[in-house]
Design brief:
The protein has 454 residues and is an alpha+beta fold.
Length: 454
C-alpha cells in the first residue's frame, strides 16, 4: 500500500457530574500512538539540536524528571514513554511534544516561587500529551490542505518541508505546539486534577499564570503566547475541583525543590538573543560540514520498503517510516528539522475524479504552492521511469541554507510522480541548492532509474 491514513482516537475530556472527576474520552485523530511516539522522538531530537540543553545527569534535570514522574503516575490515558528535559534558556517557557517529551526552560524553574507552581506548569504540559492535542492539530492541518498520508519525513522550509507539513511538522516551532483556547482549557482542567491527585494545590497553576500576566502584560513571556488564556482559567479550575473531597495541601516546599531553587539562582541561562546566536553558529558549522561531507559515495545500497525499492548512496541515511514515506539524505545535509540535500519518497491515492497522472500531479503541486507561495514551477513534462508513466516538475523554493548575509539560497526541487497499475501515485522529490544540483544529478538519476514499485 502506498500510503496509510489511519483514523485513530485522540482524547477529549468530560466532567463526571456526580464526582467532579475529569474523564478522558476518545475522538478523531489521524495518527496511531505508535506514530505519535515516533514523531515525538524525532521532534525531540531536533529540539535538542536546536536549543542549548542541560545534561541529563545535571541535578536540575534529575529533579525535574522526578517531579514529572510523580505527576505522570497520576495521569489517565495512554502510558507514553515520558521524557523530561531542561532548556538552558532564561525566558519563561515550557512545551510538550507528542508521545512523551516535555521541555522546561531553566527560566521557568527560576520564576517558580513554589514547587506547586512548577508542578502546575508540568502537569499542564503532560496533559497536552495525554489529550493528544499535538497530533489532533496535525490531523486538522493535513485535512485542511490535501488528503495525503505523507508521514515520517524530516524536512524543513523548502518544498520538502511543505510536504512534511501536510503530515507532521517537527521541531520546537511546529504545528504541534499551536494550541487552541479549548485545548488550553482542557490541559488546565486535567492538569489541575493531576495536581490534586499528586498532593499539590491546583490553584497554584492559576496563580503562576496570573503572575506572568501581571508581570508581562500584553507583551508577556513566550509562555503566554504559546498557551493562550481560555478566558476563565480560575473559574474553570474552581469548577473542576469543587466536588473533590476536601484535603489539606502541603504548606512548605520539598527539600529537593529548595535545593534546586538555590542551585538555579546561581545559574545564568542564555537569553533568547544568545540562543539565536547559538543557533546561527551551529547552522554555519553544519553548513560547512555539509559542504565537505555531502558528496555521495560511488557505491550504492538497496532499500526495500513496503511499496517501493530504490538504490541509494551507501554513505547516506534513511529517515522516516517505510510504510508511508522516507527521506534519503547525507547526515550532514539534514539539520534543524530541514533537508538541504537528499531525496523524499512517498505516495498517495488520488482523489476520485482527479486520478489521472496529470491531474494528481497538478493537485500535489498546487497544494505545495498553497502551503508555500514561494514555490515557483519552472516547467513540467511527461516522462517515464523504467517503462512506467511519469511526470517531471522542476521547481525553485527557498533552501534552509543561507548565504553570507543570512538570506536563504535558492533551492532546486525536482518532483517526479509515477503511477502504479492500481492508480496510486508514488512521488520523489530530489532536493539540493540550485548551485549544487548539477553535481548531484548523476546520483539522483541513478537512484531514479533503480526505482521499482510494489
Amino acid at each position: 500500500m502506498v500510503a496509510v491514513t489511519i483514523a485513530c482516537a485522540t482524547h477529549r475530556i468530560a466532567q463526571n457530574p456526580s464526582t467532579g472527576r475529569v474523564d478522558v474520552q476518545d475522538s478523531f485523530n489521524q495518527y496511531s500512538p505508535e506514530q505519535e511516539i515516533e514523531a515525538g522522538r524525532q521532534a525531540a531530537a531536533e529540539v535538542k539540536r536546536q536549543l542549548p540543553m542541560l545534561q541529563d545527569g545535571d541535578p536540575v534535570t534529575q529533579y525535574v524528571k522526578q517531579l514529572g514522574e510523580k505527576l505522570v503516575a497520576r495521569m489517565p490515558g495512554t502510558k507514553y514513554p515520558y521524557e523530561f528535559h531542561v532548556v538552558n534558556q532564561k525566558e519563561i517557557n515550557a512545551f510538550a511534544l507528542p508521545g512523551g517529551p516535555v521541555f522546561i526552560n531553566l527560566g521557568t524553574i527560576q520564576a517558580a516561587d513554589s514547587e506547586g507552581e512548577l508542578a502546575g506548569v508540568m502537569a499542564h504540559e503532560i496533559s497536552h500529551i495525554v489529550l493528544r492535542h499535538a497530533t489532533s492539530n496535525a490531523s486538522k492541518e493535513q485535512m485542511a490542505q490535501i488528503p495525503l498520508a505523507i508521514l515520517g519525513a524530516v524536512l524543513g522550509n523548502g518544498t520538502g518541508g511543505q510536504l512534511a507539513r501536510l503530515g507532521m511538522s517537527l521541531g520546537a516551532n511546529s504545528v504541534f505546539l499551536k494550541y487552541s483556547r479549548d485545548a488550553e482549557r482542557e490541559a488546565d482542567e486535567l492538569g489541575a486534577q493531576t495536581m490534586y491527585d499528586a498532593g499539590f494545590n491546583p490553584y497554584e497553576l492559576v496563580e503562576f499564570f496570573g503572575k506572568l500576566e501581571k508581570e508581562g502584560g500584553s507583551g508577556g513571556p513566550q509562555f503566554l503566547s504559546d498557551h493562550p488564556n481560555p478566558g476563565n482559567r480560575q473559574q474553570d479550575i474552581e469548577r473542576v475541583i469543587a466536588k473533590f473531597p476536601r484535603r489539606t495541601y502541603a504548606r512548605s516546599n520539598s527539600q529537593e525543590f529548595e535545593t534546586i531553587k538555590d542551585r538555579v539562582a546561581h545559574m545564568k541561562p542564555m537569553t533568547a538573543q544568545q540562543v539565536a546566536e547559538y543557533q546561527r553558529e551551529r547552522q554555519a558549522k553544519l553548513q560547512r560540514a555539509a559542504e565537505a561531507e555531502l558528496r555521495p559515495s560511488g557505491s550504492f545500497k538497496q532499500l526495500d520498503a513496503n511499496f517501493f525499492a530504490i538504490q541509494y548512496p551507501s554513505n547516506w541515511e534513511i529517515m522516516g517510516q517505510q510504510n508511508s514515506g522516507v527521506t534519503i539524505a547525507p547526515r550532514s545535509g539534514v539539520s534543524d528539522n530541514a533537508i538541504a540535500y537528499g531525496v523524499v519518497v512517498s505516495g498517495f491515492h488520488p482523489q476520485q475524479g482527479r486520478d489521472s497522472l496529470d491531474a494528481a500531479t497538478r493537485d500535489l503541486v498546487a497544494s505545495l504552492q498553497r502551503s508555500n507561495p514561494d514555490v515557483q514551477v519552472q516547467g513540467a513534462q511527461r516522462s517515464s521511469v523504467n517503462g512506467m508513466p511519469a511526470m517531471t516538475v522542476n521547481m525553485i523554493s527557498p533552501s534552509p541554507l543561507s548565504d553570507g548575509s543570512g538570506r536563504p539560497v535558492a533551492e532546486q526541487d525536482t518532483l517526479v510522480t509515477v503511477q502504479r497499475q492500481d492508480g496510486a501515485i508514488v512521488f520523489l522529490v530530489f532536493v539540493a541548492p540550485q548551485q549544487d544540483m548539477q553535481a548531484l544529478s548523476p546520483t539522483y538519476s541513478q537512484m531514479l532509474q533503480s526505482l521499482q514499485l510494489r
